[in-house]
Amino acid sequence: MKMRSNPGTELFAHTASTQDEAAADSQRVAPSQSLSARNRRRFLKGGMLAVGATAFGAGLAPSRLLASQDDNSAPITKGDIAILRFLQALETIEADLWQQYSELGGTQDNEVSGLHGGNVPYMQALQLLDGDMPQYVHDNTDDEISHARFLSNYLQSIGVQPVDLTPFAQLPSSKADGARQVGRLTNLTQLTIDTSFWSRYRSITNPDFDPNAVFAQAVPSLNVGMHTAIPRSNDDTAGSVINPDPTQSTFPDLLKAIAFTAGFHFAFIEQGGTSLYPTLAQHVTNLEVLRILLSIGPSETMHFQTWQDKAGNATPLTVVDKTNNSSVTFTALQNAQGETDPESLNGDTLQANLIMPEPTHFLNPKFGPVAIIRPTSTKFGGAQAAVNSLVQDGLFRGQKPLNNPELVRVLLQLAEEADEARRQL
Ligand SMILES: [Fe+2]
Ligand SMILES: [Fe+2]
């Protein structure tokens, strides 16, 4: 474990490299300074209406204030590093779970999965949701590997040790055809999937406004008990009749349910990143670090949007899984259900093709509903909330010690440090 106990303490990488920049830094108005200083900045942001007016006062020339608005001069702070290290760790978790999906269900090539042939019944069962599913699984995996790699390389470039989670890659692989037999960080066979994101994005209610709002589950039974999203062994694919044309193949209900479970889990994972990046971005100081978050975050949203569209193609099905001692029921979400009036105020609209974000309350209801990512509040969301949602999801079931896995403790420590970051302009 190469992680430092207090990441970035001695590092203020990317501190101003020229004397001018250093001077600018020393004069930057700190958030803790007087209200009048902050008001001055508001004037600047408000379209320069007050330039030259007495509002500046305090001996600061407008040109000096303008220079201090150039965020390029802001150093990478300890908080920025904490955010980057947390995201690098989380992307490593994402890459680990997507790697497992891709080995079994993704298009097989040397780029992501290696040439292990995949699991043809699983790959074809996923295509019940969309004929392009294997390609999408492959590409989502490629993206997550790139996120983790980029953040690791970036941290090293500024002299910060990336988080190394390899000592925790202890969980077993699937025994089904296609899976490599290596240690894993995550467990995709005992998931409890919160599918309330489905109705949250179809509702006018924003959890940032009403943290106690109830959002209906798209698949209530996935949020109860444990469910596998990958075939655990060839027993889970037994009975499939495979045709070179996937539309002519037939599958046992258990394998269909496993594929549909994966479809909803894909969306669950990616909507988490969709909220996490904009939430953490609000605490970033350095402009380049902000650009990293603003550039990776929306790619998570692209993933989410794809997956929530595909998951809606699941067909009605009820299956009992004896291994997990659980059952799951999928209903026909694709049937038009109509929107409630006023626009799913109670978060109960599940109609599958409503994949564009329903306008929701934001900042103040007086502004009117607006189509946005939600939640993004730093009060209710952030790094620790993201880790806790993955724990609730069951991704780390089996990590030792069972009652308080060390991997979770490490992730929560990183998350706590990321959540403590504050924008310092
Ligand atoms: Fe990612
Ligand atoms: Fe992602």
Offer a quick outline of the entry.
By secondary structure, the chain is mainly alpha-helical. Helices cover 40% and strands 2% of the residues.
Which runs of at least 5 residues are low in confidence (pLDDT < 50)? Answer: 1-69
By DSSP (H or I, 4+ residues per run), the number of helices equals 11
Largest sheet, order of strands side by side? 1-2
Query: What is the share of helical residues?
Result: 40-55%
Distance between the termini: 34 Å
Order of helices and strands: HHHHHHHHHEEHH
Bound molecules: fe (ii) ion
Quaternary organisation of the protein chains: single chain
Tell me the Rg in angstroms.
24 Å
Number of strands: 2
Outline the fold blueprint.
Elements: H1 19-27, H2 35-45, H3 62-68, H4 78-105, H5 120-126, H6 133-157, H7 197-200, H8 253-281, H9 287-311, E1 317-321, E2 326-330, H10 383-392, H11 406-420
Antiparallel strand pairs: 1-2
The structure holds fe (ii) ion (2 copies).
One fe (ii) ion binds next to helix 4 and helix 6.
Description:
The protein has eleven helices and two strands. The protein is 40% helix and 2% strand. It has helices at 19-27, 35-45, 62-68, 78-105, 120-126, 133-157, 197-200, 253-281, 287-311, 383-392, 406-420, and strands at 317-321, 326-330. The chain is mainly α and 425 residues long. A two-stranded antiparallel ribbon has the order 1-2. The two termini are 34 Å apart. The protein is globular, with a radius of gyration of 24 Å. β1 and β2 form a beta hairpin. Bound molecules: fe (ii) ion (FE2) (2 copies).
